[in-house]
Design brief:
about 325 residues; globular; four-stranded antiparallel β-sheet; Rossmann fold; single chain; 11 helices
Length: about 325
Amino acid sequence: MQPEQPPANGRAARPPDRHDPSDRLRQTPEMKREREGRAAAASAYDGPIARLVGVRKAFGALQVLRGVTLDFRAGETTVVLGPSGAGKSVLLKHIVGLLQPDGGEVYFQGARMDGQPEGRLRRARRDIGFLFQMSALFDSMTVEDNVGFPLAEHTTLSGTERAQRVREALATVGLEGTEKKLPQALSGGQRKRAALARAVILHPSLVLYDEPTTGLDPIRADGINDLIVQMRRDLGCSGIVVTHDLQSARKVADRVVMLYRGEIIADGTFGDVERSDDPYVGRFLAGRYDPTVDDAPAAPPPASAPAASESKR
């Protein structure tokens, strides 16, 4: 299958809305101004919102990413599909600078992320929201303090201003009135929503979703899928969603990339990937297990590839 070719400027036309217009997120004048400012800044940069070039990563003898080159186009939600252990979450952590590659380059909005000092990464992370796989809320902090944590870390807003922003973010994800609750008083779906409110409270250009529906029943998972679509549509956020949930991928994806044993084996719309002639893609989408393949160790990297411990600088 030929990969879907991006437009020359790295952007993609936004698909039609997939939800009722009455379901729009509530936006304050400040949120609207920030969104317009972000759109103006984005118009001055024509490239992909994130880019990986020849990225390699290993943990000991385990080769996780094997020279991955991938552009994530601005203005759309890209779903990264693949089995457990394929390197999906590792890929996300490279984009946000939580992991450094053994080789290759990582860019966010045209600026290098690999090998950069923490201060520069910290500034870049203000424009990247991250929804962690298990929500990663602080158990000893209220919902208000959890959601407002990025504001305390990255802004000079007063306590009153932070509280107002938290209320707005919680309203965005349908959690009004939960400010004073502790995370353990919330359901699994509510914890995911609170974590999503925290991920978008700085109004980022890009949101990274690490297994956003894991551990949720189908109804609550569908609610999270709706929110992912709404974040792109109403807040203008590009998104990268790591998942092996096919129903979620079908609903939220503008583009699907399949990662298998550290390499890209399919790229296109969900329909393109369904039509792939790659045998693993077909088995993955059909949920067919083959012990001779699925339990076999990954092949070692080519002999010419630099060792994982070798520094690129």
